[in-house]
User: Fold this.
Amino acid sequence: MKMFMLKALFLAALMFVSVLFGMQQANEGIHRMKGFHDGDFKSALTINETNEGEVQASVLGNDVSSHDLQKKREKLEEMKAYNFFSSLGKSVSEGISELTEKSVAIITNLITGK
Assistant:
């Protein structure tokens, strides 16, 4: 069992490193394909700290501030919108969880003979 776990952890670590290496290679390939350095080419998420200590973030070139997020949160709380699909998903997941728990309990009782 120890060898299996060791092999599984090794393979997971190898896959993780391979994914990171592939992402780096893809990034370099994009830059090589362009053929020149473009200052307007921005990453998806940039975080800058100003001299006053404030942190500024931008996602896909759009500036984001904590005030914007707070306003959106307040607006959503005011709306108290009812999402049918969200409530349906919650009820389905609760039903599946209960079914799984009962199935495991029944199988356990059959195996132990209680």
In short: Strands lie at 45-49, 55-59, 62-64. The chain has a mean pLDDT of 80. Residues 82-114 form one domain.
